[in-house]
Amino acid sequence: MGRSRWVVSKNLQILLWIAIVLSVFMFSNTLYLLINRLADNLDLSFFTSSRTEIPILLQTMILSHTGVGILLVILMLVFGLMHLPPVWKMYRHKSGLTGIAFMIVGLVLGITGLFILTSAASRDHNWAWWLHVICALLAPTGYILHRMSSRGNKPANNAFKRFSMAVILLLIFLVIGHISTKSNLVLTKEAKAAREQGMHKGPGARERNVEDYADGEYFPIGFVPPGSPFFPSAATTSSGGYLPSRIITRGELGDSEEIKEDIDQFGFVKNTAIGASTCARCHQDIVAQWESSAHRFASFNNPFYEATITEMRNNSNEPNKWVEKHVAHFKDFGPDGIGRAKSKWCSGCHDPSLMLAGKMNRIIDRNTPEAQAGLTCLACHSIDKIHNQTGNGNYNIADEQEDPYLFAKSKDGSLGAFLHDAAIKAKPEAHMEQMMQPFFAKSEYCMTCHKVSLSESVNNYRWLRGQDEYDNWHDSGVSLNAARTFYLPPVKKECQDCHMPPEKAPLGDLAAKNGMVRSHRFIAANTALPFIRNDTATLQKIVEFLQNEKLGVDIFAVKSTSRQEPLMGLKHTGLLLKSGEEVTVDVVVRNKGVGHTFPGGTNDSNEGWLEFTVKDDTGNTLLISGFIDSEGHLDKNAHTFKSVLVDKNSNPIHQRNAQDIHVTVYANVIGPGTADIAHYTFTIPKEFENKKLTMEARLMFRKFDQKYLEFAYKANPQGFKQFKEIPKLPITEIANDKIEFLVSGNTTALSNSKQQNNKLPATDWIRYNDYGIGLLLEGDSRGAIKAFEKVAELQTTSLDGPLNMAKTALSEGNIEEAYRQLRKCEELKKGDPQVAWVWARVRQEDGLYKDAIAAYTYVLKYFPEDRAARRQLGRTYYLDQQYEASINMYKSVLDIDPEDREAYYHLALNYRATGNNADAALMDQAFNYYKIDESASEAAQKYRMENPGANLMAQDIRIHHLEF
């Protein structure tokens, strides 16, 4: 009996043969891709390239897999539609079901492939990848079953064997080709030149400069040799030298006409997102968020910063020993060479597109895209290394390797750009390895620019600490690194938890997980930048952020001349105050949710303050502290939260002129979980007897004080060209409290009838606790004890009352009372590590060093990075003459903060005790390098004498005397 007639026309047979040939390729291609995936998972070095490389053959196979796969699905659909009519009348149940199944599997295969192509092969889409692989296995099975069960011409006996052999031979060819071409490291031309000239020293290499530090001389951890192309910035590049700005901007400089229109209208580029167009093809939401961020407006597109950096570049040319020693390094910078060199200290974090390309050495054209770029996507995401914990832009930029994917330089909207993105989506590992480092999720990443110090090369003076959000966070309860904290949160928080919280990604960002991405708005407290560009949406988000349980204000206590004991826990009704008598009102401001000090950042120009008012029942202001005058300046006697700095001649730092900073007059900030108290004293006139008045305290914040605003506006008219006069920056009310009171002529008027008639709610314990914390920190231990006793009364099962009383007794030197309170703590909760911290301190003060060592060791079991516990344990080892143990402990402190002067001081003591005078001398040098210059206090004292408001804020206890 002959073979059955094949119910397929000649045209369809040609179509089928084309499909079979393509299927051979697809089978080999699929197996090749699966082998690559397996090799990656098993880390088979003989088969895989480096994690930032992706071989051209592999990319070609990925792209052809997609193209051929789409073609095969189309052929299958065409074949099915043409094949169905002639076989419908001959329908057989078995062959019909297998044919339909084959078609469905093929469609799912095509759909999942397109989904992976458009949505990326990420972990979130693992289901799509596995479904695609399963369908890839089911499709040939379905086809074979269909052919074998059909009535028509069945395949020849050796057809499947020939098909298999073809697949295997092609696969062998692909594997051999892959192994022989697996390395695809595409170096930038700058990296090639560095290697050819023998200048390449590895990622971020920096050599000790023997001309500056001889043997036996202390070598600062964050030292930047003047020979560095970026001196005095601590930034480096992998190639060792300057890099082209395209590394940071991807060469995406925007439309020149649009940029010119922006600059003509606003004074800076507002609408063109420089260096982000390629990123926006896949990360639409992240780019949209970044476009409104302070990071984007960090360079000459920030008129405030531009005013300061220009002033530094033009007016900081005073010679110093660094210049005299390295004249050759500065002479090429032009007449303003010293100032231009110093400006690179700022530029590592503000102007990477300019500085890393060597453009800070010359006059800067502010209208160029590079000057208007700010911190682009790659300014952050090309960082591959953090050198140490000293900050100052202490990072390395990976500039050696070009984008490893095909068609990387294709323009938006082109076929090349589509293929480039398709390769990334199908094989994103190399892209992720280049763009995402493990430390990106850690606070240490933020530290590179949010921890600052000044060196002699910048200020012609000495090492000084600048803003330092990192250490303020790290050495606090927020990071779970401080056993001594008053409030210990349940979980550790990194910088990113507050400033990069998850945000919805409605635009389809491919980095989204469960529809969310890490916000790249970097919301913090800078209300000035969105204000000057009229970005009301961002301004509102910042206001909401600041008002979201970050700080609290509480008008908590009042005392009078006739009653010195304060009346605490004031309620909002029922307060009686006597006319004609002087009263003092205590206002508590607590840091509830800021993970570092409030304020943070540039506190010489930031301005936080308390506005305290007394008003009558019609709303007329009778008394005020913390007002803004007609010219926009803050009341000089206000209770402020900021720092006042002066130069060597006692002139205040009003221009963000960091190079002139000499000494701090005062810095009133509130650490995480602590409180500050403002005391307001006034006498209520007789005329207000029997009247109801209202006192209100409002915590206010303005990003820049008026002095700095005036400087920036006058120094940089180009940047503020949209404003005809000095703009009025927004003032944000962060928190407030209000209390009504009745003025009485009664001699015993001071009372709180609401409190007297009702038992205090247990929740009021935290108000008393905050008040006690504020009093303890300002040195009023007697008042703190009174408050903490109330805490213990309201929270009978909590450690807070007795533990804080133990801390207060310790501060007074009352060891016996501290022991008594600690025993109460042990009765409430035995073995608590925060209690152990106080036990250790008390035992140490009592000379019981072995017990103190055991307690500190216990604390470090639970708080291993508690630098204060490490310091005290090192100190106790020293007092117990265990010098080697003390040395090791203080070295561990330096592992956390290599600029800890106390550690250097005690290392010198230990080395000297062991007879190691050479190392002791070295540690003395280190201590002298980082220590506070006591003689500088004369400049601060002079300023205080001339400025009563600053003098008041420099006191431990600030009492503001007000008049009606």
TrEMBL record:
Transmembrane feature ranges: 12-35, 55-79, 100-121, 127-147, 159-179
TPR repeats by residue range: 867-900
Pfam families: TPR_19 (PF14559)
UniProt key word Oxidoreductase: no
Alphabetical list of InterPro entries matching this protein: Multihaem_cyt_sf (IPR036280), Multiheme_Cytochr_ET (IPR051829), TPR-like_helical_dom_sf (IPR011990), TPR_rpt (IPR019734)
Domain of life: Bacteria
UniProt keyword list: Membrane, Signal, TPR repeat, Transmembrane, Transmembrane helix
PROSITE patterns referenced in this protein's UniProt entry, alphabetically: TPR
Gene3D superfamilies linked to this entry: Flavocytochrome C3, Chain A, Tetratricopeptide repeat domain
Keyword match Transmembrane helix: yes
PANTHER family given in the database record: C-TYPE POLYHEME CYTOCHROME OMCC, DISSIMILATORY SULFITE REDUCTASE SIRA
Name of the featured protein: Tetratricopeptide repeat protein
